[in-house]
Amino acid sequence: MLSIIARRFAGLLLTLTVMSAAVFVVMEVVPGDPAAIQLGTSARPDTLAALRASMGLDQPALVRYLAWVGGMLHGDFGTSFTYGVPVAGLIAERLAVTLPLAVMAIVLSTLIAIPLGVLAAARHGKAADYGATLFAQLCLAVPNFWIGLLLIVVFAVGLGWFPAGGFPGWSAGIGASLKALLLPALALALPQSAVLARVMRAAVLDVMGEEFVATARAKGLTRRATLWRHVVPNALVPVVTILGLQFSFLIAGAVLVENVFVLPGLGRLAFQALAQRDLLVIRDVVMFLAALVVVVNFLVDMAYLVLDPRLRGRT
């Protein structure tokens, strides 16, 4: 088991290294002169030269890359050209909104999808199965930002139960903050719950055909007990894979929903940096999100070792 963890961790480090090199080349080498991109074509030569010097663009690309990676390892992501503050502080500030939003979305997605998928599999070919399939297709067909707009119209404008947008800050209290995040979290969760419910349904149906399920029934276990004690735990392995991918997607793909609800999250920061041509912020946010996806996938691999004992004996 330790050898498996060591190999996966080595793969994690290699992936992060290759990814950082790719991000650096795409953001600082391929576009040409990052300083000219930020200031525009009408910038004065002396201003352009000063910005290039402050950004270290007068150094060779390899030196800049090693300095960037070394700074990230020490928590120094550089200083934003637009905001004039450290990028690490910007990411931490915005992550305090995006991370709870993603966690709420993944919790809501799981609470909706797993019972729905189990119900559809247990009532295979019946009305409940068709209803769950229809729900999943509807949620997949409608983009999450449209779901967000519908939720605003119904629950914010119509009923007045939730705010239509904005974030009061955690200093305003956990209740007010979670209330502001509930609608955007639900808008993110519904399409993901549709995917997860279909995976859960397929996994449960697959496990129900195994011999140990028939053995459990032959020993006198009821259908419900067999389903929840033996079938569902064994069907969770592929579901964990989807959960890991969904969490990564929710962190990295919440740009539209955060803009719909005017949330000061990481996705909105990337959108604003792109509009303001702040390449330093874009580079660091992209690298941070990519690294987060890789780390989450690594943790999913580790979860396999816990959920599936057969993997622990492999070398």
From TrEMBL:
One of its GO terms (cellular component) is plasma membrane. GO terms for molecular function: dipeptide transmembrane transporter activity. Pfam families: BPD_transp_1, BPD_transp_1_N. The keyword Transmembrane helix applies. Keywords: Cell membrane, Membrane, Transmembrane, Transmembrane helix, Transport. Its main location: membrane. It is found in: Cell membrane. The keyword Acyltransferase does not apply. PROSITE patterns: ABC_TM1 (PS50928). It is a multi-pass membrane protein. SUPFAM superfamilies: MetI-like. The chain crosses the membrane at residues 99-122, 134-161, 167-190, 231-257, 285-307. Residues 95-304 form the ABC transmembrane type-1 domain. Belongs to the binding-protein-dependent transport system permease family. This is Peptide ABC transporter permease.
